Amino acid sequence: MPSNPFSPEVVDAVTRHMNDDHPEDTLVICRGLGGEPDATAARMVGLDAEGGDYVIIVDGTERTMRVPWGEKLTERAQIRWEVVRMYRESCLRLGLSPRREH
Questions:
Q1: Model confidence over 16-68: pLDDT tens digits?
Q2: CATH number at 8-91
Q3: Is the whole model's pTM more than 0.85, yes or no?
Q4: In whole angstroms, how far apart are CA 62 and each of 15, 20, 28, 41?
Q5: Residue 57's closest CA among 39, 36, 33?
């Protein structure tokens, strides 16, 4: 497993925030950049300097997936910007219009 510059508390806070406040965005990312366009649900379960870890549901079956960041992250503030970039890129790949509040 890649080294993780983020403490367990940061990982927990980010994954909880994504799952509680942005579950639709998480699903868009897994569909668009994760290569699982048929996923019906997704939740973030971890992250490190190299990418995010997710559990998705496809055809009623739960499976894990990893979506790499566009670059290695070392600071907590980078996570938000990278997730927003991934969401927007995923929307483009899927032909969706991104929400404006990002």
A1: 999 999 999 999 999 999 999 999 999 999 999 999 999 999 999 999 999 99
A2: 3.20.180.10
A3: yes
A4: 18, 19, 17, 9
A5: 39
Q: Give the dihedral sign, CA 92/96/100/102.
A: negative
- The domain limits of the chain are 8-91
Number of neighbours of residue 10 by Cβ within 10 angstroms? 14
User: Cα(20)–Cα(36) distance, rounded to whole angstroms?
Assistant: 21
DSSP H or E run through 77: helix 76-94
Reported residue count of the chain is 102
